Amino acid sequence: MVRRAEVKDIPALMGLLDQVNLVHHLGRPDLFRRATKYSPHQLEILLQDPTMEIFVFADESGAVLGHAFCQLQEVPPEHRLLEPVRTLYIDDICVDAAARGKGVGSALCSHVKRRAKALGCHNITLNVWACNPGAEAFYRKSGFLPQKTGMEVIL
User: Fold this and answer.
1) Which structural domain range is residue 77 located in?
2) Per-residue pLDDT tens for 49-75?
3) What distances in angstroms separate CA 107 from CA 2, 41, 80, 133, one per listed residue?
4) Could you give the number of structural domains in the chain?
């Protein structure tokens, strides 16, 4: 049920990206405009990018119920401070609101973990906004632990 995203999935991806944006916009309207992260044209380009790993969860009828946008990142061996590790960064995971609680997110996370291992990654990283406690709880349940904490003061 989890497969690599294709151009035919772009309309469904746009709908999911809209849902992600709404959560962020409602949680932090001071930071997030009411728009999607990518345009359909940008998605076409991303689907061809060799550093991107974009997956969808599709049901038996082919309806896309969730996505995972991941990017392969590598620290170069000549870096003075950091170890030369390969990381799969989860830029975005979304499960359609109507499909939440049905294992879609877990299936996507399991697939991403298998893919990261196959790519020889040391770890998988992601960022979660404090205004999205449901996502944080899901990631913790999926085995993710805090790596670092971002902080701010609003002026």
Assistant:
1) 2-141
2) 999 999 999 999 999 999 999 999 999
3) 7, 27, 37, 20
4) 1
Q: Does 148 reside within a domain?
A: no
- How many whole angstroms separate alpha carbon 2 and alpha carbon 40? 21
Q: Is residue 146 part of a domain?
A: no
What is the rounded distance in angstroms from the CA atom of residue 135 to the CA atom of residue 141? 10
User: Any idea what the CATH number is for the domain that residue 107 is in?
Assistant: 3.40.630.30
**CA 126 to mean position of chain CA atoms:** 7
Looking up tokens 């294709």 gives 6
Distance CA 22, CA 15 (A): 11
Residues 6+ apart with CB under 8 A from 54: 4, 5, 46, 47, 67, 68, 69, 70
Query: What does the pLDDT read at residue 50?
Result: 93
pLDDT attached to residue 43: 98
pLDDT averaged over the chain? Answer: 97
The per-residue pLDDT for range 121-135, each reduced to its tens digit, is: 999 999 999 999 999
28 inside domain = yes
- Is 79 inside any structural domain? yes
Predicted TM-score (pTM) above 0.85: yes
